[in-house]
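Researcher: Last one for today. Full complex below.
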Amino acid sequence: MSKQVLAKQVLAVPGVVIRFAGDSGDGIQLTGDRFTAQTATFGNDLATLPDFPAEIRAPQGTLPGVSAFQLHFADHSVATPGDSADVLIAMNPAALKANLEHLRPAAQIIADSDQFTKRNLTKAGYAANPLEDGSLEAYTVQPVPLTTLTVGALKDFGLSRKDAERSKNMFALGLLSWMYQRPTENTIAHLTTKFAKKPAIMRANIAAFHAGWNFGETTEAFAVSYVVAPAPAPAGTYRNITGNLALAYGLVAGAERAGLPLFLGSYPITPASDILHELSRHKNFGVTTFQAEDEIAAVSAALGASFGGSIGVTTTSGPGIALKAEAVGLAVTLELPLIVVNIQRGGPSTGLPTKTEQADLLQVLHGRNGESPVPVVSASSPGDCFDATLEAVRIALKYRTPVVLLSDGYLANGSEPWRVPQSAALPDLRVEFASGPNGVAADGTPRFLPYLRDPQTLARPWAVPGTPGLEHRIGGLEKADGTGDISYDADNHEFMVRVRQAKVDGIANDLPPTVVDDPTGDARVLVLGWGSTAGPIAAACAEVRAAGGSVARVHLRHLNPFPNDLGEILAAYDRVLVPEMNLGQLALLIRGRYLVDAISHTQVRGTPFKSSDLRNAIEKVISDV
Amino acid sequence: MSESLLSPPLTGPGPRRVPLPLITNPSEGPVKQSAKDFRSAEEVRWCPGCGDYAILAAVQGFLPELGLRRENIVFVSGIGCSSRFPYYMNTYGMHSIHGRAPAIATGLSVSRPDLSVWVITGDGDALSIGGNHLIHALRRNVNLKILLFNNRIYGLTKGQYSPTSEPGKITKSTPMGSLDTPFNPVSLAVGAGAGFVARTVDSDRKHLTSVLRAAAEYEGTALVEIYQNCNIFNDGAFEVLKNPATRDDHLLRLEQGQPLRYGSDGEHTIVRDAAGSLRPAAEAGATEGSDAEVIHDAHAADPALAFALSRLPENGGPTPIGVFRSVARPSYDRQVAEQLEQAVQASGPGDLDALLAGRDHWTV
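Model: Here's the assembly. Have a good evening.
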C-alpha cells in the first residue's frame, strides 16, 4: 500500500476522538479494536470506551441495537476516552441518531448513505433523511455509500451480496486508517490469522480494508488527512491492554511470583467473563480454570483450592458478589487466601450488564453477616488492573484473608497503552506453608495450633493437607484462639472478632505513603477518588490547573483499610470533593471515619464521568471556599 | 495511559522461577494405622443414641485398610448434625457452609488430585440447599466420596420436614402434614449421571463397611446414601428395615451377578413388568420363580436397571441396599490434570515475560 504518495493536504493535529457506531452485528467492536491496535503501535497515547448493548443481536437497525466504540488518541498523555467525539462513523440511521449526543459541535460525520433507506430511517424514528434535510448542518456530514463500495470492491470474490456486505466495517476501517495515516501491517496480520481457516473471507476483508484506504486517497470527497504524532513516553516495551486482560495477567503473574498454582472458579457473567476466557488459555502456567454450576460453587471451589495450597480466585460482577457473600464470610473465618474479583456494572439486580458503575463498594465492605472484615483493593485504569491484582494477591497471601479486587465495566473493556513490566522486577510473593508443630499440648507434647498468629501480621499458619502431623479441622463455627477448636466462649468470641478486625486494619501499616498530587501546594480543595474515575478526575484537574486554578488530587488504591495517612491529608484541605459513579458510597465512609464534611459528586449513567462536568464541579467547590 | 497516583512502581528481588505445581505428596504408600489413629481429640457432641455414632465408628474402623496416611485424607462437610463429622476425624477437615461441601471439595480435589476427599452431608444439606452442587459433582465425576446421611428430618433446627420426608409428615413446620413429594436420592443421583451410587444402613456395620469400601475403590464421584436414625425428631424412620421381624420382607440386598430376591428364604422374586419397571412378582401378577427373575448388574452401562431398582419401594417393592451402579468413567480430576499436562507439552511451560509482552508490542 502506498502510504508515501500523498498529494492531498495533511494536517497535524494534537489529538482526535473517533466514535465508531453501527448495528450490533456490524463488527463495530472489532473495527474499534483494530483501529486502536494500529494507533497503539504507532505510538499515540490513547484511551478507549466500548459502549454496547446487553443484547447479542437486538433487532437490526433499531436504536437498542446500536453498538459503539470510542477512541481518544493523541500526541500527548491521554486520561479519558474523551467527553465528545470529533468524528462519528455511523453505519446506519439508528447509529447516527443514538450517537449525536456524543459529538462535539461541528464534528465530522461519516455515514453509510446506502443504509439511509426509508425502512431504516423509519426504524430509527426519522421522518426524513437527516443526511439530506439540513438537520445536521451544525456538523460536517460526509455521506459515503460504504455498502455499495464494499460490494463493488469484492465483486470478483465470488461472495454472495450478503457476505460481501459484511466486510463494510473493514472498508470503513481502511478509510479511517487513511484519514489518520495509521500503520496497517498488524491489521492485515490480524485478519490473516483470524480468518486462516476461511481464506475467502480473509481475502475479502483484506481487499475491503485496502479499498477503503484507496477510496480515501483517491476520492475528492476526502480532501484532508491528519497526522497525530506519537506521544512521548518513558523508555520501555509497550502494548495496548484492556483491564480484564491486565487483570488476568496479574493473576498469572501473582501465582508465578508466589510459586503457587492458580485456581479460578468462575461462573460466566458480564463484564467479567473475559477473565475466565483468558485464564483458560494459560494452563501451561499451572492455571486451572473451573466453570462452576453457579456463583456460589465458583467461590466455594476457589476456597477449597486455597485450603489445598493454591491461590483460589473467583471472578464475577455485582450480582455474583451477592451470591458469594456467605462463602466469603467463611473465608474470613477460615483465614485462608482468596481473591474475589468484582467487575462492577450498573445495578441493582441485573441492572445494566454492559455499562459501568462503582456502586458495589458498600456491598463488598459490608454485605456479609457478622463482623466480617475484608480488605478491598481497587484498580484505576486498564493497565493498573495488573498492579492492583498483584497487590490483592500479596495481601491475600501475606495476611491469609479473602481480598476483594474492584474493577468495573469501563476498565474491563477499555484499553490503554501499557508499559510491559519485567517479571523479575515484580514483587516476591512467596509464602511458607506450615511444616511442623508450632505449640505444645497440655501434656507437653508438640502440637499444631492452626490459629496461632504471627505477632506481626496476625496471620495464622497455612497448613495444607498432605503435611504429616498437622492434621486439623477448621470451619465456620467460632474457633478458640490458638487451637481452632469449636468455642462458644464469650471472651473468646469477643477476642476473635476483634483480632480478625485488627488483622485487616493492620494492613494499613504495610501500605506505601499516599501520593498527593498538589503541584502548586496552595490548593484548598482536594478531589478524592477511587477506581475508574482516575482518568476523568486527572483530566478535570488538568483543565482546572490550565485555567489557573489550584486543586489537589488523591486516588485510593486501598478502600479497606484506608491508608494510615489519609486522615491527615484530608484535614489539610478546606474542602474534599468525592466524585463517584454511585450515590456517594466512599463519601459516606469518609464522613463516618474521618468526620470530614466531604462533598459528594455523583453520576450513575452507566458511562464514565465527562472531564468537563468534573471540571465544573471542582471549580464550583473552589469558588465556594 | 494513566499517570498513577497509586503505589510507587512495583519492585522485588531478582529473577526467580518456581516450577509449578509445587505440591508433591511427601508420604505415599501403605502404613500401619488403626481406628484410633483416626479419632480426633474433639468431644463427640451428637445426641446419645444418634445413628451418626455408628457411621463414625464404621468409617474410623475401615479407613486404616485403605492404606492412606491420614494427612492425605480430607473430610469436608456442610451444615447439619451429620456435618459435625469432620471435627471427630483426625484427618484434615473442613466444616463449611450449608450445602456447599461438594463445591468446596471439588476445588480441593481438582487442585490436589493426590488427596482422598470425602464429603459428609445430610438430606437437607445435600438435597435442599445444596442440591445444585450435588448433581453437578455427580455429572462431572469429581473424585469425591459423598456420604449422605439421610434421616428424613431436619435435626439441627429441631424437627422440620426435609426433602426426603414422606408426604403428609406432621412436623413443627407442617402441622397439617407435608405437601412435598420427597426426593429419592438414589433416583436423583442416577438421573444426574452418577457413576457410582449405593445405599446402606447405619445399624448394619458389615454392610456399611462393604459399601464404603466399594465407594473408596471407585475413581470418581461415589454417592452413598446412608439411612440414619434420628432418635430425637424422627425415631424409627427405618425401623421396618432394621427390625428382624420385618426386615426380610422389606429389604433387598443387591449383590452383583445375583438374582434380585428377598424374603427370609429368598423366596420373593423381582420381575420386570411390561413397562420396564421392576416389581415384586406378586404385585406384577407373575409367579415367583427363576424364569422371570432379574439379575443385578451394577456395571451395566445403561442406567435403566439402577433407576428401576431405585423406584422399587415406590412400586410396592422392598428397599434395595448395596451398590446400585458402579460404572467406570474418567474422573474429572484426572482429565483436568491431563489438560494441564497437554498444555505444557503443546506450548512448553509458561513464559511470563513472553505472555506479558504479547505479540503486538512496540518499544520506546
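The longest strand of chain B covers residues 319-326. The domain at 35-247+323-345 of chain B is CATH 3.40.50.970 (Rossmann fold).
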